[in-house]
Amino acid sequence: MPRPKTRIQQKNSETILEAALEVFSAHGFRGATLDQIAEVAGLSKPNLLYYFPSKEAIHSALLSELLDTWLDPLKAMDPSGEPLDEIMAYVQRKLDLSRDFPRESRLFANEILQGAPRIQASIEGELKDLVDQKADVLRQWMDEGKIARVEPVHLIFSIWALTQHYADFDTQVRAVLGQGHDPFAEAGDFLETLYLKLLRP
Questions:
Q1: CATH of the domain at 122
Q2: Domain span including residue 8
Q3: What pTM was computed for the model?
Q4: 53 and 45 Cβ atoms separated by less than 8 Å
Q5: Same domain, 48 and 132
Q6: Total domain count for the chain?
C-alpha cells in the first residue's frame, strides 16, 4: 500500500495540476511541455518529475478528475422531478460549469478534438451509459406527454453545445458582445426561452 502524501507533497501535487491545467487548456496536450508546466508551477523540472513521471501522467490525472465534474450535472437530473424544471436546471448547471471552470472545459474540448485518445474508454463507457440512462428518462416524460417529443440524445448534445460554447469560445463571445454584457446571464435567459418553447407540450 502506498504511503499517504505529506502535507507538502499534497500541496506540490495540487500546484502542479493547477499549473498543468493552465498550460494544457492554453496549448492543448501536444503543445504543452513539462518545462512550461514546471515554470508555471514555480518548480524545477526534476522536482515536477518526482511527483509525476511524465506529461501523460499529469494529463491523465487532470482528465480523471474532470470527467467526474463533467458528469455530475447530468447525474443530478431527477426522474421523479417536474420535467421542464429538471431540464432547465440541467441547462443552468452546465452553463454555471462553463462560467466557473472554463479551463477545464477547454481541456476536455482539446482532448475530444484530438480523438479522445486518453479518455476513449470513459466516453464509450461511463459517459455513454449515463446519456443512455437519461435519454430513457426523457423518453418516458415524452411518452407521458409532459414534454414535447424530440430526439433525446440530440437534445442532450444541444445542451452541451449551447452551454460549453461560452467557455470554449469565450474570447469570441466577449469580443462580439462588447463591453457591458454578462454573457452567462444573457445566455441563461436566452436558453430558458429556447428550451421552454421547444419542450412545452
A1: 1.10.357.10
A2: 1-53
A3: 0.84
A4: no
A5: no
A6: 2
Residues 18 and 41 both lie in one domain: yes
* DSSP character string of 138-170: HHHHHHTTSS----HHHHHHHHHHHHHHHHHTH
Residue type, 69: T
Residue that is written with C-alpha cell 508555471 in the block: 40
Contacts for 122 with CB less than 8 Å, ≥ 6 apart: 67
Q: Look up residue 184 and give its three cell numbers.
A: 452567462
On whether both 130 and 155 belong to a single domain, the answer is yes
Q: Are residues 96 and 188 in the same domain?
A: yes
184/111 same-domain check: yes
- Which runs of E-coded beta strand occur in 6-63? none
Print pLDDT tens along the chain (201 aa): 456 668 888 898 999 999 999 999 888 888 999 999 999 999 999 999 999 999 999 998 888 888 888 899 999 999 999 999 999 999 999 999 999 999 888 888 888 888 888 888 889 999 999 999 999 999 999 999 999 999 999 999 999 999 999 999 999 999 999 998 999 999 999 999 999 999 999
Q: Which grid cell is 78?
A: 431527477
Measured distance CA(123)–CA(110) in Å, rounded: 14
Q: Note whether 70 and 49 are same-domain residues.
A: no
Distance CA 56, CA 29 (A): 9
Q: How far out from the chain centre does Cα 136 lie?
A: 22
